[in-house]
Amino acid sequence: MKLELFPSQKHRYAAVVAAVLLAVTTVTIWTLSESAAVSTKHAGATPVPAPPALAENPEALGLQHYEGSIKPRMPFIAAMLDAGIERPVADTIQKHLGTVEFDFRKCRPGQTFIAQVDSTGRLYAFNYVTNRLHSYWISRDSSDMLRASTWETPVETELLSIEGSVETSVYQTILGMGERPQLVADYVDVLGYDIDFIFDPRVGDRFRILVERRMLDDEIVGYGNILAAEYEGELTGRVVGYRFDAGEEDGPGYFAPDGENLQKAFMRSPLSILRVTSGYGMRTHPISGKRKMHTGIDYAAPTGTPVWAVGSGTVAFTGWKGGYGKTIEIKHSGAVKTRYGHLSKIFVRKGQAVRQHQTIGAVGSTGYSTGPHLHFEYLVNGKFTQPRKVKNPSLKRLEEGQMPAFTSEMGRIDSLWMNTPKHIGELRRNAIAGARSPAASKDA
Ligand SMILES: [Zn+2]
Q: What is the separation, in whole angstroms, between the first and last Cα of the chain?
């Protein structure tokens, strides 16, 4: 990978790095400096309480120490017994975990546990590690009663602007900066009604994301809200949205500066950018040589990739449709239909109502198809129509009376966003491994 050539460049080499990076067709990155980022402790001003603990010196207390982990297709109780824990103790553990809504069906391979049992065979303490951020505990209280609890590891939340220009794809650019796929997914959720992040990006397009990032020991462990998101592209123009609570039931939404809701009748893409990462190569039509006219968009993606409805509507057709293979058609309002072809699986029935973003099928290679891909097209009054020519009305825009509050919130967000120096971020070595796409690793 070209990015590995520059694992430790510092921002004082910004200009040189930028020039070199552009020259080798990779990414240029700006992030806010740590010192400028607004930093808030998860637990506020109060000291963080300590988590429950196991006995530090179990031998001195005459405790038996059992360690184990969940293995594939192994139920919780079997894992306990597998670690050598006696059945009555395992039952006690299970009973107490039930009091803190431990979901035994959600045990995952690799999750670990430790049990300490006293010389009379009673449980002394137990710890189950779900992940770095979450664990379950059973310990004895001051009156020697067992008590179960959960522990959330405190994380630091920082607000920062993640910015860059697109080279290969938005997904790979953002991952190349050391960010996580979740950020890309959240960003696409905000702007994905105006932009098809699979097809629309062009080299040199720019993006900015003002987001709360959760950190633990200098490692990204997740993201909070995106406060604002912007994309400026050759094909897309400039699209920007600010998070604002307009009092809707489903919570805050994103609005353009003129008060228009960024959420629209149709999402631009019928599958997740996280699964379709091969960049420009996918613009070729795998079957275009075999049909007189190709009337849709082909998304190359691994078999089984979930396909969602781009808008709410009613299923008008499911089944085999000639060269399209297994096909779904959805009827939306305004005489618009969407068609999804070459599917491997269909999850909906004719006549069924579907919501926007609902998974309706899975990518396959049925019909005239040389490899797994989704054929997607719009039909308006029965005629094929280019996606950008289909009317895509906004959902409820802000009312006149809401505009002053929105304008003031937008100003607040803008000053957070703009009054901060920018730096070229370091390209992190660990980001390179993470940037490998699911499709690429599958083919490898
Ligand atoms: Zn096609």
A: 15
Helix (H) or strand (E) holding 239: strand 237-244
Q: Does 281-389 match 64-152 at the fold level?
A: no
Question: Residue 39, CB half-sphere, CA atoms under 13 Å: how many?
Answer: 10
Q: Measured in angstroms, how far is the CA atom of residue 296 from the centroid of ligand 1?
A: 5
Tokens 């293995």 identify what position? 71
217 CA distance to ligand 1 middle (Å) = 47
- CATH for 281-389, among 3.30.420.10, 3.30.365.10, 3.40.1180.10, 2.70.70.10? 2.70.70.10
Domain 2-40+157-264+421-443 has CATH 2.30.30.280: no
Global pTM reads 0.70
Average pLDDT, stretch 327-336?
95
Q: Separation of 343 CA from ligand 1 center, angstroms? A: 12
Write out pLDDT tens, residues 351-367: 999 999 999 999 999 99
Tell me the CA–centroid distance for residue 288 and ligand 1, in Å: 7
According to DSSP, the residues that pair with 308 across neighbouring strands are 359
CATH number attached to the domain at 64-152? 3.10.450.350
Q: Which two tokens stand for residue 210?
A: 């003002």
Condensed to tens digits (0 to 9), the pLDDT of residues 211-235 reads 999 999 888 999 999 999 999 999 9
| CA 374 / ligand 1 centre spacing (Å) | 7
pLDDT at residue 19, as a whole number:
36
